Amino acid sequence: MSGDVRLVWGEAFMAYRLSEEHPLQPIRVKLAVELIRELGLVEFAELVPPRTATDQELALCHSPRYVELVAALSDPARRSVVSWEDRAEAGFASADNPVADGMHEACATIVGGSLMAAEAVHTGAALHSFNPAGGLHHAMRDRASGFCVYNDIAIAVAWLRTQGHRVACVDVDVHHGDGTQALFYSDPEVLTISLHESGRYLFPGTGFPDEVGAGAARGTSANLPLQPYSWDEPLLAAFEAVVPPLLREFRPTILVTQDGCDTHFLDPLAHIQGSTAIWPHIGRRFHELAHELCEGRWVATGGGGYAIREVVPRAWSLLFAEMVERPDLARGVIDPEPFTPGPEAQARVWAFLDRDLQQLSQELEVPLHLDRPDS
Ligand SMILES: [Zn+2]
Ligand SMILES: [Zn+2]
Predict the structure, then answer these.
(1) Which ligand ends up closest to the CA of 295?
(2) Ligand nearest to the CA of 303
(3) Is 80 domain-assigned?
């Protein structure tokens, strides 16, 4: 089923480090690639180093004024030319997005990595590609947000649009993919789907079923929130209820996925209780759907993941093992047991999922069904 697979990795990714104390640490990406190597998975892929995106490429999703401001803030010698007001307005007045030396170049290199992944799949040089450093889905057109300076995944999607693609972008990070959604909210040729912990409890506070796209793009934005304590069964039931039917209805020419692994029980930033056992399932389904609908074209990125050593390397190795069709090599890194909450929490999780899925189904005017395993 698989053709050539590309894995984008280079030490240059290590430069996207916003501070020593920051929860988003590039070492997560390095450790993931090390485990991918250790498991022997890298032999089934071509490893390519990232390039740095040009300002013109960044302008596919960001205003030139914002790019210029980030470049100025990145340079200690030029930083003071930016007023406090402009700095705050661009999202750099919060602890989430501190000003870091070189952040413009470092983030442009993550964007370059996602563009290379998209280019390889578009030209047919590869059938599937993975940029584990990518997935910075909160960055907005004129504003950094949620650890993200430039939205690499949105820029890759925007570039694919210029090549004539109809793009489906599925985001399974525990946080709502708000930046990506906002950038394509009025584009009927881009479907964004986000499954995430409910915005009632978690940053960025958006991603409800009534956010369905604007104007001609109505129906091309889909959000299914999950309750705190959701574990593997409801996570996968939610995925199955939404992702395959909406992709089949939309019929994309390419699938782009944001594979944040902060849905894990051990992740310190959120309250979802997934295990790494969801990854073989999610990876296999993305892979199958890409072959079913897009002649195999699948571009995957990383995303969130703050249990840096405990979870991220295993989650992304499991995803990558599905991409190269060697799940057997990664089986040993699956959590042995799901992290199931008590009966009351279980009942609450299913009840809210049922309700939210029904609302989503009504908003999109597409029948969506929850296939709940027997309890
Ligand atoms: Zn394949
Ligand atoms: Zn996240």
Answers:
(1) 1
(2) 2
(3) yes
